Amino acid sequence: MTGNKVILDTNIIIELFKKNENVRSIVARIEMVCVPLIVLGELRLGAYRSKNPTAKEKEIEDFLSTSVLLLLNDRTTKIYAGTKAALLLKGRAIPENDIWIAAIALQQALPFYTHDAHFREVDGLQLFNPLSSI
Q: The PIN domain covers which part of the protein (predicted)?
């Protein structure tokens, strides 16, 4: 799936950093890559825990220079709360950060590229997995 704007999850950006050619080919066709603020936090955590934090931070900054950072606002919190409540009612749990990321993706109503199958638990997401079919 290609399009004008998409949101990338942490695991897809990591695949780009690993120079995964299949993922790079798919992402290269996208006009605007969007990165949720929570994803940026996860990437920075990975950088700080790496053997070379300075190099990893530069890689992140270089990537961000060609991306749009998606911030949170009051509407995001409402979508987050509704999403988490729906998951609790279904008896389904996904990582807390991923509920926030899903809320941002729902708010933006954009395709969301991820390799995490648990996002299927969130109603309304437009999911795409450039690594395999989910």
A: 4-121
